[in-house]
Amino acid sequence: MVTDIRELNEKIQQESQFVDLINIELGKIIVGQKAMTERLLTGLLANGHILLEGVPGLAKTLAIKSLAQTINASFSRIQFTPDLLPADLIGTLIYSQKKEEFQVRKGPIFANFILADEINRSPAKVQSALLEAMQEKQVTIGETTFPLPDPFLVMATQNPIEQEGTYPLPEAQVDRFMLKVVITYPKKEEEKLILRQNIVNEIKTISKTVQPADIVKARQVVREVYLDEKIENYITDIVFATRFPGEFRLKRFERLISYGASPRASINLALAAKAYAFIKRRGYVIPEDIRALAHDVLRHRIGLTYEAEAENVSTEEIISEVLNTIEVP
Could you tell me the CATH superfamily of domain 225-325? Predict the structure, then answer.
């Protein structure tokens, strides 16, 4: 077994070399926000979608656009507005008078990387059209079903400030996102660097270091990363503590949590941890990987009661308390 792990470790170190190249290229354009770029890569390698929440101007759009350029992949930015229709997203049938037949005109969803900007500004029918594409990796126009390109990654953004006139994503839809990443302001030194970069005339360009086929291959290698049974138990304990807090010495949370994380949380935490270990050039998952990703995987999967809101208890605090209580293997 030790030999297997050693061989696997060597294989992962060999296969994950391109991660450094991507980070170098992204570092040319994006200052700070290391956690965001790491989560983007984690979602990409674990074949999961990402929901980003942060105030405007924190390089959310720039990050995914730069990642698409680095991977030589196609990129679509879709601005979600209240008057957007599903056809604007997935495409539609157009009648050709010349050929006297209906022809398919594909929408912007047919790209490797989709930026769904301010996803909560569009009505439910548009959100559900996007979510069918996310879940099934295919789109139906008329009577024909078209597969979406591989790799396919949706990064949706939400602005936490203006909530007037928005359509909050229902719990079942939010659950489709592997990670919900909350982005904060850069540090003072990083802000100075951003300032300097943006007032000089020099335009930095990103080199294409990886091909989409390399990402598809890397995803298969990510699945091989070793996940010990003790780590599996650790994941299930964390998830079960959000459902039955009383059984895990967290009785006070029973009246604060209206519903706990779904089984999708366990699956996504395991897959994301494997991808995270791969990014860290390791062939096995350690408890620190789980702890690093637990907030991003769970924060949108725990429902709070009115009592929790009245007492100003957030999901962040609940997840932190769960991580502090559950025994680390």
Answer: Magnesium chelatase subunit I, C-Terminal domain (1.10.8.80)
